[in-house]
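User: My notes are a mess, but here's the protein and zinc ion's SMILES. Can you give me a structure?
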Amino acid sequence: MGEKAIVIRGARVHNLKSIDVEIPLHRLTVITGVSGSGKSSLAFDTIYAEGQRQYVESLSAYARQFLERMNKPDVDEIQGICPAIAIQQKSPARNPRSTVATQTELYDFLRLLFARVGTTFCRQCGQEVTRDTPESIADRVLTLPEGTRFYVLFPATAGLPSPSERSSSRWNRRTKPSNEERTRVRAHLMSLMQRGFTRFYRQGQVVELDSIDANPFEKLDDVYVVVDRLVARADVRSRLVDSLELSYREGYGTVEIHTVGNGQQRWRFSEGFECKPCGLTYPKPEPRLFSFNSAYGACPTCQGFGNIIAVDLDLVIPNKALSLEEGAIEPWTKPQFDWIQEELLEFCQHAGIPTDVPFAELTGEQQRLIINGSEDFPGVRGFFDWLETKKYKVHVRVFLSKYRGYSTCPTCHGTRLRSEALNVRVGGKTLPEICAMSIGQCAQFFRQLTLSAEQRAIAERLLGEIQHRLDVLVDVGLDYLTLDRLASTLSGGEAQRIQLATNLGASLVGTLYVLDEPSIGLHPRDNHRLIHILKQLRDIGNTVVVVEHDADMIRAADRIIDLGPGAGEAGGQVVFQGSVDELERDPQSLTGKYLRGELRIPLPRERRRPRRGLALKIKGARAHNLKNIDVNIPLRCFVCITGVSGSG
Ligand SMILES: [Zn+2]
Ligand SMILES: [Zn+2]
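Assistant: No problem, the inputs look usable. Here's the predicted complex:
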């Protein structure tokens, strides 16, 4: 063929009849043929298996011992194989916490983004939490009216050793309290003086200390060390910054600015990451704070699962169309609990809650009263709390287990992260809020995200990676999935396209990709996108082999290998290999005949008429994304439900 190719000679895996094929490198090859003709035996059990085996062989003996030993496939010779990745329909074994975001590695990039440019907001007052740098403090101080005199101070107690255990014991306090304290203060002042601080400040007065014997301070609670005295003017900036740095160093990360004169102002700054008005300290955002897979970042209540096993109200009130009288609260319909049902009806009478309308029609407040209870009535929760105390009885445990289920974690509300992570925002949104968006919305969000010039410089590359991966996910037709969707709930086709997008997003080159019927479950619109993605994967320098029946995919291929002619023992032979044009002209290939339109699946000449009234009627379907739709499915008919992927 002239081109570089993977050359396979004498392949005999399963039903393959010692066949020779060539897979051109950096091309899209489709292996097709009737079901059972040996397509997977060639693609996965021969080509992919050998790619894997040679890769493992190339590793050191040490690394090899951790990998499964692979047998050489039954083939005479394979030349030119490269490292191979199989993208199959079945989803790989995974962590139960795994989501679309973690599978696509997007979560790792988002964590980095939040750690680098996330802004923390105080949970109490909602103000931005900042760390004061000498530069930022200087900016703030120099907003004072020009000519304002001020002191740069730090608390004299900074670094003062706390009273020792012995001196704080009751016995000591009674006998010689002040001596002990005086010695401690004196030693601390001496150490300050040795470091060159002889000027102190208390209640607006400066006190010069020439000798420690002249110490006027019994306690240091309202005493400050004077670092500098300045007048607000633009040209003092560099001296001010130096003084602030000195204060941070000597004052254990705190500094105060007190102005002199009328309307004295006091500002406190700290090196710590805290809300100054509220005095609340926050953890510095770092990647592990945003990881629900790490003990540091995971919500402590649910360990990062987002839900806990608790009383499930949907099991307690399974039918909200029932009224309270009719037994809406299911556990209270049991004879042994009819006393609480009576209490409920009595309580409702006093509280003015109607007992003869469906539970669903009660107001939110009325429902909450019944569930959470009040002073006079334990409510559903009080009832179950009481039962918890009786758990030593086997029948109570059995009874409780019927009403237990997974419910959203009350601490993190299903966001899986510890609360501090939720105080950090990028573009006004928390990380869980971003993950709750669909991939399409998320791509839009990042396109419109505005950052400061400084943030942009830090996050430029990260944002590029995030945007690129989101775009690829949109391209493979997964724009409707949310990033926090659990990987275990994805369909085989969705899981496969996620793997595809992840590989494409990582821009790996020189790799052999082997795919198993990727068009399955795809609407024609999405199929065209998929073909586009496979071509992109090829164009960045990879070799793509696809096992496929789809006519569009076959037409898009650079090379086609048609296996057959039949299934099982009647198959395993190469019926055709070459380009699409050659296939269409080939008289032998069954696939060619279909492509030419000589053979096709005949349309029924007559269609079965649905019989009036004989139908499965569905009213108000709202599962997942269904918008309260009504559908009739005629019985005794062959019915097709179609629509773009993810349409429901
Ligand atoms: Zn605050
Ligand atoms: Zn939680």
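The chain has five domains: 5-91+507-596, 94-127+282-306+409-489, 132-271, 310-406, 609-648.
User: Great, I'll file this with my notes.
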